[in-house]
Amino acid sequence: xYRAQPEDFQVDEILGFEPSGExxxxxxxxxxxxxxxxxxxxxxxxxxGIKRNDVSFAGLKDRFAVTTQWFSLYLPRRELTxxxxxxxxxxxxxxxxxxxxxxxxxxxxxxxxxxxxxxEHLQQHWAEIESRLQEIAAQGVPNYFGxxxxxxxxxxxxxxxxLIERDQLKGNRSGTGMYLSAARSWLFNLVLAERLRRDxxxxxxxxxxxxxxxxxxxxxxxxTGDLADIEQTVLANWQxxxxxxxxxxxxxxxxxxxxxxxxxxxxxxxxxxxxxxxVLASGCFATVILREVAELFRPQxxxx
Length: 304
Description:
Layout: E1 9-14, E2 25-33, H1 37-48, E3 55-57, E4 66-74, E5 90-98, E6 109-116, H2 126-139, E7 141-142, H3 155-165, H4 177-197, E8 212-215, H5 225-235, H6 239-246, E9 253-256, E10 258-259, E11 262-270, E12 273-281, H7 286-293
Parallel strand pairs: 1-4
Antiparallel strand pairs: 1-6, 2-4, 2-5, 3-4, 6-12, 7-10, 8-9, 11-12
Helix pairs in contact: 3-4, 4-5
C-alpha cells in the first residue's frame, strides 16, 4: 500500500545555498502536513498583507505528505515575526533574509523518506527485492517525468492539445506554463521509452557524454547520427507540439535519461513494510523510483 497516511511520504526540500541574512526577501522554511503548496502560499500572502504574486517558492510539494519547503516573501521595508505568521495549516521553522526571490527549480533537490505498507511477499522474496534495490542504487532508473506532471487522468496533456489546436501557445507563455511543461515532458518520455525499447538508454550514442533526451524548444538540435534518427522518428507524429514549444519562447535543452538516487537506503519495518530513503535532484520524481521498486524483475517500460 502506497501512502496509507501522509507520514508515509516525507519530503524535505534541500535549498542548496545559504541565505545571505539580508535583502528585500524574507525566506521561510515551512513544515506542512496534507496541505497544498499553492494554498500555503496564498495563506502566507494574507498573513503578511502582501499580494499573492509577492510570495514564491522553488517547487511544488505533494499534498498528501509531510513536507518541508522554502517560500520567499517580498518585504523590502517590513519585518515580520514568527507570531505574525502562525497558522494551523503549517509550522514556520526558519525566518531569514535574502537578496533574491525564490524561483522555480532554484533548490538543489529533495530528501525523501517513504514507507510502503502491505508489501506482499516482502519477507519471502527479500533477497530478490534487496538485489533489485542495490541495482537501482548503483545503476539508476529511467528518468521519466512522473504522472503528476500530466495532471489528473492526463488532463494537462488534453489542455495542451486543445491550446495547440487553437494556436494559443504560440508566442504566449503567460498562464500556459503548466501545459507547456506537460507537453515538453511527454515528448521526452516518448524518446526515453524508445531508447528503452532499443536497450540503449544507459549507453551514450553519437558523441553523448551521458545518455540524454530532448526538452523541446527553439534552437538547432545538438544530436547527430543514429541518435538524431531515433528522436526524429519518435517525434515525427508530434510536429505540431514541437512547433508550439519552439514558438512559445522555450529554448531547446537536454535532460539525462538516467536518474541516479543519492544516499539511497532501505530497511524492513515489519514483515510487510518497507522504508526507503534517498535524495533526488530538483525536477526528478520519487514515483519513478517507486515504480522500479514495485517490480522484482525489469518490466516492459512504457511512457508514464
